[in-house]
Amino acid sequence: xxxxxxxxxxxxxxxxxxxxxxxxxxxxxxxxxxxxxxxxxxxxxxxxxxxxxxxxxxxxxxxxxxxxxxxxxxxxxxxxxxxxxxxxxxxxxxxxxxxxxxxxxxxxxxxxxxxxxxxxxxxxxxxxxxxxxxxxxxxxxxxxxxxxxxxxxxxxxxxxxxxxxxxxxxxxxxxxxxxxxxxxxxxxxxxxxxxxxxxxxxxxxxxxxxxxxxxxxxxxxxxxxxxxxxxxxxxxxxxxxxxxxxxxxxxxxxxxxxxxxxxxxxxx
Length: 268
Prior knowledge:
The protein is mainly beta. The protein contains one helix and 24 strands. The strands form eight sheets. Strands 1, 2, 5, 6, 7 and 8 form a six-stranded antiparallel β-sheet that branches. Strands 12-9-16 form a three-stranded antiparallel β-sheet, with no helix packed on it. A three-stranded antiparallel β-sheet has the order 13-14-15, with no helix packed on it. A hairpin with a 2-residue loop joins strand 13 and strand 14. The longest helix is centred in the first third of the chain and has 34 residues, at 2-35.
């Protein structure tokens, strides 16, 4: 009788040990699976492979932004510069770091990584600014902006008073600047002050309390107003002229000032 009890006790201990081993194995397998979704306790980054991508995206435009920050590497916390808001740029790659998606982008010779949520897709086509692209002065100022001898505000000013809507063809780009020409003169302008004519579809984003824009009979701030177009309205632009776009709205044909619009996703 005693031997049977001893055997039963040993068998129970064996089952307990086997159960503990099974739980340990299950814990290790579960930990290896879930660890890929979270940064580990040592603070190291949990990353997925960098995926190549291409196409045109547009930076977000918001009252709470003063340029979209870019970083040297995905997951960094120290900024190396800023991209202008509401401008088309090229997407090169996407990578996930600590569960957040990052985008490798370029804009007029300026390169870096930004949080992908700061971009919205325009098209797989090359609508981003490159050599030969027609651009226009997008800044509305009384004095206008200046053109410089070199891509720096510290260099010699070659031309002053470039007003909204003046158009140029891009000859060269460097670190967010573009070399352009006008009436035989060649100079550099800061691309923070310029826009381009990408795809056909645009969205009204005034970033003002007005929440609407003027729809005019002809391109020009002194032209008669047909009606008002409210914020977030998407418009198909069929013709461009000096920073203005021709479109249809509620059965009428007219012009809108592109300063108050942002390129949006192309439609078929």
